[in-house]
Amino acid sequence: MLRSADAPMRPLAASPAGGGTCVSPLPSHQSGWVLRMAEEADTAGILAILNDVIATTTAVYTDRLETLEERLAWLRHRRALGYPVLVAEGLPGDGIIGFASFGDFRGGWAGFRNTVEHSVHVRADARGRGVGQTLVAALIEQARAAGKHVLVASVDASNERSLHMHEKLGFRRVAHMPQVGCKFGRWLDLVMLQMVLGDEPPT
Ligand SMILES: CC(C)(COP(=O)(O)OP(=O)(O)OC[C@H]1O[C@@H](n2cnc3c(N)ncnc32)[C@H](O)[C@@H]1OP(=O)(O)O)[C@@H](O)C(=O)NCCC(=O)NCCS
To answer: CA-to-CA distance for 3 and 191, rounded, in angstroms?
Structure first.
């Protein structure tokens, strides 16, 4: 459950590289974690979550684990483009328990410049406590603040938790693509969801 209305607020720390598009403070959560912009020192925590998701779920359509160097390059690239990478940090001293970010949609073709696609992953032992919802709710505000028009989520059709979470946050299912992926020896259906963030004319 989101508690941004009654939670104390803390300003976002500016990233050393000047990355991120954050213009508003994020809620400091009262349920044992805080959201903030990622720093390079968070890369190992982000990687551990991602590699566990890759190894154990169909949430990500690959079975190749990433290296620390690859994840660090990803973080730097996102920041260089001004895209936010948010982390949820467990308190006290529980490390990174979730992360979320958005980036270019469909390879960044110019005509898609007002649309971004996000990803969100929560550490296995921290799931079901509202961390994912809080991260995506914050990303929605980041996308609005960055002047984006549409936020897209691509979710494996068997991922009922993620589908439920996105629909609860206001995303609408717009496509079901049968058998576009494969992993663990079976075909995977992809569900596309989107949220239109405003009614402004295109720029
Ligand atoms: C999907 C994920 C990001 C959600 O984050 P989370 O912190 O676990 O989720 P939250 O606690 O914020 O909310 C989950 C919601 O789904 C509900 N839920 C849990 N299990 C469910 C299930 N099997 N089916 C339907 N809904 C379910 C919860 O009850 C909650 O809804 P509620 O607030 O109405 O009760 C997280 O579980 C995760 O990282 N999973 C593995 C990787 C992954 O799937 N990433 C997303 C790729 S699109």
So the answer is: 28
Strand extents, DSSP E, the chain = 9-10, 26-27, 33-37, 85-90, 95-104, 115-122, 150-156, 172-183, 186-196
pLDDT digits (tens, 9 = 90+) for 122-177: 999 999 999 999 999 999 999 999 999 999 999 999 999 999 999 999 999 999 99
Q: What gap in Å lies between CA 107 and CA 98, rounded to an integer? A: 25
Testing ligand 1's pocket by substitution, the residue of 161, 183, 193 carrying the most ligand atoms inside 8 A of its CB is: 161
CA 16 – ligand 1 centroid, Å:
32
Q: Which fold, 9-148?
A: Aminopeptidase (3.40.630)
Q: Ligand 1 mean position to 7 CA, how many Å?
A: 22
Could you give the CA distance from residue 2 to residue 5 in angstroms, rounded to a whole number? 8
